[in-house]
C-alpha cells in the first residue's frame, strides 16, 4: 500500500499565506520536492509491520502542520529552486536563507547552540558540542510562535549499522524541517527511543551523541546565541 499523500493537496497547503509568489513556479517546485522526498516512496505496510506504534506516532507528528510552518517551508523551497549559486557550503546556505527571509520581512535569525556533555563514571570524559540552525518568529492571532528550520534534518538521525525498522523510520523524516519547538521535541524523543532499541538489537551501546539529552541540546539548548550576518544575496 503506497502512502496516501497526494501532491495536489500538498501544493494547496504550501500555497497558503504566500500569494505574493508566482504560483506556477511555486507549484512546479513543490511537485519536484514531493517527488524527490524519500518519504513519499516508502511503503506504509512495511513500516507499520516493523513498529506500528512508533511509525504511526511519527506520522501523526509530521502531518500536524500549521499555516505558519507551511508558509515558511514554501518560501525556503522557492528560494532554493531559484538559487543562482548552487555551490554554497551548508553554513553559507543557512546564512543566505536567513538573508532572503529577512528581505521578505520575516524575523529570521541564524542560531548557534553550544553545550557540554559528560559520560563515563564518574563523568570521566567531557566534550563540548555546537550546532547551527535557523529560527523564524511568526506572528499569530494569539501571539508569536518560534519556528525552527533545519535544512539537513534527516541526516542528524542517521545510525551506523541500523536495523531495517530504524532505517525506514529515519528515512520518513523530512530532509528540510520547519516546525515548533514542541514538534521537534516530540520527534527527538521518539527517534532517540527508536535508535536506542536499534542499537540494542545490534548488540551496541548507545553513544552519548545519540542520547536524547544530546540531541535536544542541538536545537533546544539554553545556551543559544544569534549570529550577526552580513547581507549576502
Automatic annotation (TrEMBL):
Pfam families, A to Z: PDDEXK_6
Protein name: Uncharacterized protein LOC107772475 isoform X1
Species the sequence originates in: Nicotiana tabacum
